[in-house]
Design a protein that fits this description.
Blueprint: E1 4-9, E2 21-27, E3 30-37, H1 45-48, H2 54-61, H3 69-84, H4 90-118, H5 122-143, E4 152-153, E5 156-157, H6 163-188, H7 191-197, H8 205-210, H9 215-220, H10 227-230, H11 247-250, H12 257-280, H13 293-302, E6 305-313, E7 316-324, E8 333-337, H14 339-343, H15 347-351, H16 359-364, E9 377-379, E10 385-387, H17 390-407
Antiparallel strand pairs: 1-2, 2-3, 4-5, 6-7, 7-8, 9-10
Helix pairs in contact: 2-3, 3-4, 4-5, 4-12, 5-6, 6-12
């Protein structure tokens, strides 16, 4: 006679790098069901934007996430450029694409190391962390920072590429083509590593479609989805990008942790190829449309409407929607849909039928970023706080709308 019981994993756990709580229903050691609480990391970034002008929000958007900070800031900037019709010079587009691919390499190598740590492969974890330093040094050479680069601006980028940086980039490409392959082989050909990842946390192709998975999670399930190909932006229209899917390399897509590992590792090589194409095809000319921020701010004050920007971030589709009102300095409203928010819906499916010991690995296989997912938190005069549910939030919004309508005021 089997007896089920519930076990919480997180929010603080030795195998997790994000504050995620998973309530697992177990039958012995086997996971029968799972409910997740993605935490309450509330910084009020979207709310703070309403008290700042678009140039000041650049600073905020870059701090949504430390790993994919350039993807977030560029998605926000492209949303503003969309509604204000700001044109980006070709050289600025190429430099933006270069930083995006450097960030992808940095993110994927970091995740690969964490995945090795999750299965107890500490030597591979340290090797991955050591190799990641090379791309971090290059980002620091270009921008002066290892994270939150401060290189993006409306109409282009703030800094140009120097011959010294171009040479350092080519040296980095040679380094990774020489040194990253042994790391890949160590993990993907090790029988113990394969046994720990193959068949674990499976998300089928049909489930990935039904639950709207994005990025490497979707591609690992066999979906050929990549915004750099389907909706090319910046310099990607000049260099076709084919989605990396397991069936092209291994004959079939299993949609498990090993396939998610393989997709990210293979995308590192893809990014190296793209970096070479960017450097070879880098056009001459200006790298920013307007250097005077006062003039940019004055033009944005005249803009009105809703802008949309979407980037294929290292974790998948990163969407920013921004609204401006003519004559006002500050952003009217701003909505961020991070890729983890989309893929996290699939977590319960990945858990079912697996062992309890695999839970941290399954959680980490999404490369989750909880800080990307804004949560609402209220605090009363007594200091008590609670998280507002979807139903409560909808109810409060409707009550506010009804109140404004009763007063004859504007509803937003």
């Amino acid at each position: 006679m089997s007896t089920t019981y519930k076990v919480p994993i997180g929010p603080v756990h030795v195998g997790l790098k994000e504050p995620v709580t998973a309530w697992l229903t177990l039958d012995g050691e086997r996971i029968m069901d799972a409910k997740l609480r993605l935490g309450a990391i509330h910084r009020g970034i979207e709310f703070m934007a309403r008290e700042r002008n678009p140039i000041q929000v650049i600073y905020l958007s870059e701090r949504i996430c430390g790993i994919c900070s350039f993807s977030h800031v560029l998605a926000f900037i492209r949303a503003i450029e969309d509604l204000s019709a700001i044109k980006v010079p070709p050289r600025g587009q190429y430099i933006r694409s270069l930083v995006l691919e450097l960030e992808r390499i940095h993110s994927h190598i970091l995740w690969s190391g964490v995945a090795c740590y999750s299965i107890g492969f500490d030597s591979a974890f340290h090797l991955g962390m050591e190799m990641r330093e090379r791309v971090m040094d290059l980002l620091e050479l270009l921008t002066g920072n290892r994270v939150n680069y401060g290189v993006a601006t409306f109409g282009g980028v703030r800094w140009d590429i120097t011959p010294e940086f171009a040479k350092a980039t080519r040296d980095m490409i040679k380094f990774y083509r020489r040194e990253f392959t042994p790391f890949r082989d160590i993990v993907m050909e090790d029988p113990i590593a394969q046994a720990r990842m193959r068949g674990v946390g499976v998300l089928t192709k049909e489930e990935a479609v039904r639950y709207s998975a994005v990025g490497p999670v979707a591609r690992a399930s066999g979906l050929r989805v990549d915004l750099r190909k389907s909706s090319p932006y910046e310099a990607y229209s000049d260099m076709p990008v084919e989605p990396v899917v397991p069936q092209d390399y291994f004959g079939a897509a299993h949609g498990d942790v090993l396939d998610r590992f393989a997709v990210r590792v293979l995308e590192v090589y893809q990014s190296l190829d793209l970096l070479e194409k960017i450097l070879d095809g880098l056009p001459d000319g200006p790298f920013v449309a307007e250097t005077n921020l006062n003039k940019v701010l004055a033009s944005l004050k005249k803009a009105e409407g809703v802008g949309w920007g979407i980037i294929e971030a290292p974790r998948g589709d990163d969407t920013h929607i921004v609204s401006l009102k003519g004559g006002e300095d500050n952003v009217l409203w701003w909505k961020v849909r991070a890729p983890t928010y989309a893929s996290a819906v699939s977590w319960p499916l990945m858990f079912r039928g697996n062992e309890l010991a695999d839970a941290p690995l399954i959680i980490n296989s999404l490369d989750p970023c909880v800080s990307c997912m804004e949560r609402t938190l209220t605090t009363n005069a007594h200091g008590d706080s609670n998280i507002i549910t979807k139903q409560e939030l909808i109810k409060r919004c409707r009550e506010k709308t009804d109140t404004l309508r009763a007063r004859g005021g504007e509803t937003r």
